[in-house]
Amino acid sequence: MSRKPIIAGNWKMYKTRQEAADLANGLVSRVGTKKDVEVVLCPTYTSLETVAQAIRGSQIRLGAQNCYFEDQGAFTGEISLPMLKEIGVHYVIIGHSERRQFFGETDANINKKAAAIYRHGLTPIICVGEMLEERKANRTADVVTKQVEGCLAGLPADKVAESVIAYEPVWAIGTGVVATKEQAQEAHALIRAVVGKMFSQNVAEAVRIQYGGSVKPNNVTEIMVQPDVDGALVGGASLEADSFAGIVNFG
């Protein structure tokens, strides 16, 4: 099965609205007509509408960095999926390691968010990955398997097939250290195998799995050519138009 590569830029807590508009406009001019790779921009909540306007009419899709699983209510500081959908959001990142590490997010919480995202017809980018001490203790397979199983438990197979899973080794995020192409392929193959056991081989073959962790124009190609790597979730290198365009134009 041929899976369309997906390159998403996670802008994290960077860029004012004006800066976001400038970056989005720069990317529209560089990769806005690209059809062989799906390009997604994930700005802060305050810049979502600004970026939505900038990318309108291009091939670039809009993503949010998080969501809450209730549609409305007394949840101060949270943003619901109907709010995101109204702006034009298509993808939502959930379970990023920073959310897990700094804000106490759990696999069960991420599972609820995924179900809510499906309910509103959007697509989750579900993040999993091990800490440095877990990799050193040879626990990568156990940790990643547990996360995938927890995040996807009880979800509808047809929706999982349309989802994106991002493998982000925590030790490679923002550190400049990149998993070797062999490490990336091994983890991605593991994730696909876990999905296959939970659902079916067809679902496993359909789901797209991104690599995230210090991806840059000079290392993206060797990672992207691995058979189970279907894209990249890019942090720092997505904050500058030339570097992100260089990643999108890999190969």
Word description of this protein:
The radius of gyration is 17 Å and the shape is globular. Helix 7 (140-152) packs across helix 9 (181-198). The mean pLDDT is 96. The protein has helices at residues 17-31, 48-55, 81-87, 97-103, 107-119, 132-136, 140-152, 157-161, 181-198, 201-206, 220-224, 241-248, and strands at 6-10, 38-42, 61-64, 91-94, 123-128, 164-167, 208-212, 231-234. It is built from 12 helices and 8 strands. The chain is an alpha/beta fold. The protein has an 8-stranded parallel β-barrel with strand order 1-2-3-4-5-6-7-8, surrounded by 5 helices. The protein has a single domain, classed as TIM Barrel (Alpha-Beta Barrel), CATH 3.20.20.70.
Strand percent estimate: 5-15%
> CATH topology, anyone?
TIM Barrel
Q: What's the number of domains? A: 1
Label the structural class.
alpha/beta
What is the string of helix and strand elements? Answer: EHEHEHEHHEHHHEHHEHEH
According to CATH, what is the class?
Alpha Beta
Overall, the morphology is globular
CATH superfamily, called what?
Aldolase class I
The number of distinct helices, counting runs of at least 4 residues, comes to 12
Residues in helices, as a percent range: 40-55%
How widely separated are the two ends? 20 Å
Largest sheet: 8 strands, parallel, barrel
What is the residue-mean pLDDT, rounded to a whole number?
96
Rg over alpha carbons: 17 Å
Spans of 5+ residues with little confidence (pLDDT < 50)?
none
Sheet with the most strands: spatial strand order: 1-2-3-4-5-6-7-8
Give the beta-strand count. 8
* The CATH architecture: Alpha-Beta Barrel
